[in-house]
Each structure stands twice: as C-alpha cells, then as structure tokens.
C-alpha cells in the first residue's frame, strides 16, 4: 500500500505541513497539490483546514478547488475545518456560509452551557458501529480538539464526542470522511486513525 498516491489538497491553510509529517511518519510518501490531474489520480486525499469557513471557502474558490473536490471519487478525509467544509453550511456570527454540501449537516456554534469556548484540548471520541476508521484504537482514547463550531449528531456521524452536549467528532458520507479533531496532533490514537484511513 506504500505505493499508494496520497495527496493533501493544497488549501493554503496552516496545518498542511503537520498533516504531511504525520503521514510521512507512518512511512508513506505524500504530495501537496492543487493540480486537478494530481488530485484526481490520487488513491487517498486529505482536506485540511484551520480558521474561518468563509475564508477557507474563498481560498478554495480562488484556487478552483470547489468543483475539483466535488469531482473526487476516492476516499477524502477532511480535518478540523476541512470536515466542517464538507457540510452544507457553517454559521459565522449572524452569517451562514455555504460550504461544499457533501454531508447533509450544518455547522453551528457549540452549545456548551458553562463550559468555555473554544473546546480546546483532549477529549474522548465514541465510535459508532465499530467504524473501520477507529479500528485498533482503544476505547476512550483521547484526541486533540480546537474548535468552537460543530456539526450535530446525525445519520452521517461515525464518531461522537461530548462537550456540554454531544456533537459529531467524525463523519462519513459516501467517499467523504471528516474528523473534527486533529489526528496529526493526537499522538498514537491519531496516528492509528490516519493509518486506518490510508489502509481502508
């Protein structure tokens, strides 16, 4: 499988290189690209994102990546904001930002009661129906989160987390997958999740 073509879609956001290092540490070669030929020929794709949805969508538009991501037939993993971009829309202040629409969900500000936002630090994720993305990851493993917005729990949820109330920590819709946490910053559990995605 190490001959697999692994591509991180060059979204221009800050966590691209840390995602690359996490994949390389597992012994895989990885390319960062926004060239349609390279992206569409990949075996596995990563869509990283940090920052605001409106800025990220603008970036994708400027780089002609919106239609490209829609053409993708192979497994794609959105990370953090990259996962939120897979939904229909994302709330920002009073604004709703239209996103890619691959997952039938809207991202909104988390309702956390007394708990502070952003939700930042380590938290456990409960996989749904033994999803293969969480294969060989011990129960109650901790993953690293930094976010204030989240998708509600729904049919698309393959992993959930609780912070004030439950939210979607991992998602799947067809060939589109997403994780709200940062697997590249989640030590052994995160490395195993990336490995699972690459080997699925």
From TrEMBL:
Pathway: Amino-acid biosynthesis; L-histidine biosynthesis; L-histidine from 5-phospho-alpha-D-ribose 1-diphosphate: step 5/9. The active site is at 80 (nucleophile), 182, 184. GO terms for molecular function: glutaminase activity; imidazoleglycerol-phosphate synthase activity; lyase activity. NCBIfam families: IMP_synth_hisH (TIGR01855). GO terms for biological process: L-histidine biosynthetic process. Heterodimer of HisH and HisF. Keywords: Amino-acid biosynthesis, Cytoplasm, Glutamine amidotransferase, Histidine biosynthesis, Hydrolase, Lyase. Gene3D superfamilies: 3.40.50.880. IGPS catalyzes the conversion of PRFAR and glutamine to IGP, AICAR and glutamate. The HisH subunit catalyzes the hydrolysis of glutamine to glutamate and ammonia as part of the synthesis of IGP and AICAR. The resulting ammonia molecule is channeled to the active site of HisF. It comes from Grimontia sedimenti. This is Imidazole glycerol phosphate synthase subunit HisH. It comes from the Bacteria. Pfam families: GATase.
